[in-house]
Amino acid sequence: MAFRRRTKSYPLFSQEFVIHNHADIGFCIVVCILIGLMFEVTAKTAFLFILPQYNISLSAPDGETVYYHYGIKDLVTVLFYVFIAIILHAVVQEYVLDKINRRLHLSKLKHSKFNESGQLVAFHLTSIFWCLYVIVTEGYLSNPRSLWENYPHIYLSFQVKFFYLCQLAYWLHALPELYFQKVRKEEIPRQLQYICLYLVHIAGAYVLNLTRLGLFLLLLQYVAEFLFHMARLFYFTDENNQKLFNAWAGVFVITRLFTLTLSVLAIGFGLARAENHTFDPERGNFNSLPFRMCVLLLLCLAQAWVMWRFIHFQLRRWREYWNEQSARKRAAATSTTTTAMTKQQAKPTKRESGYHENGLLKAENGTTPRLKKLKSS
């Protein structure tokens, strides 16, 4: 008796997976292989890509502590983590978002926005917990004065520097993802705007040694953005579910107020009371009056622009809501009128007893009723 050998097909290596998978997975795997070969050839060069550079040991009460400062070599580390972010982006897209999209059967436009919000929800949620952990463990939350005291904050701990490098890498990876994800041309300007805004603010806080203030501002911004993209995900699954948008609107306004308050408190008042007010880029000191005014002006302009976009979004949302309500009322009125006309047409007309034949009214027994004679006077 011959037995047929049963073959099991693995979807990871199937032809469908190879054809329909993202092109960036293969590209990133090749890059990782090259980096792995580089690691085998020379470990010192590989550590330049993987670990933060410019470490220095400083004496502390508990012993020597390793701190870091920034430099041009950080670009190499950021480049490595850009490839890591591309791989993680593809994994989330392939094994989470694509499976949900197959069940929802969304349109092409909603499909693109669903993928965008899904990726940002995962990133913002991770960044919120990571940023909050850094703020608490570094003692910035228990001592708010540390935001401006002992400025410039040239030396960073490992987790603070690594957090900023990963943030820069993620938002830089979003630029090639516009090509990999085949984003529509109409959506590219909008996405480029907020990508550039994040890069400018994160890189500015990192280079100008305002990393402590930047952590608080990023935490506030990511909380508001997380709620917004969660609201969009629930809206795409059910268009009647818009309660999260109302919660996001309230949190958004509160975060804008806290952002402006912290910025004015730390830069306008805190740095103004510092002892050193010299402008010395070589030592990382940018604490001068023009510097503080420029930074505050840029922060206020950015918040004003974001607030204007928020107001425009809310007005458009209310306009769409009232148009939808008026359309429903018109549809209900039209259906009521149509129903009344149908009932009126279906109502039977009252006819005389008997029936007509050749213009004469016949009785039910078939005889013609006798006409009544009029008496002549």
UniProtKB/TrEMBL annotation:
Region of interest called Disordered, as start-end residue ranges on this chain: 332-377
Entry similarity comment: Belongs to the TRAM family.
Subcellular compartments: Membrane
Domain of life: Eukaryota
InterPro entries hit by this protein: TLC-dom (IPR006634), Translocation_assoc_membrane (IPR016447)
Transmembrane segments: 78-97, 118-142, 162-180, 192-209, 215-235, 247-269, 289-311
Domain TLC residues, every copy: 112-321
UniProt protein name: Translocating chain-associated membrane protein
UniProt entry tagged with the keyword Protein biosynthesis: no
Biased composition (Low complexity): 332-347
Keywords for this protein: Membrane, Protein transport, Translocation, Transmembrane, Transmembrane helix, Transport
GO biological process: protein insertion into ER membrane; SRP-dependent cotranslational protein targeting to membrane, translocation
This protein's GO CC annotations: endoplasmic reticulum membrane
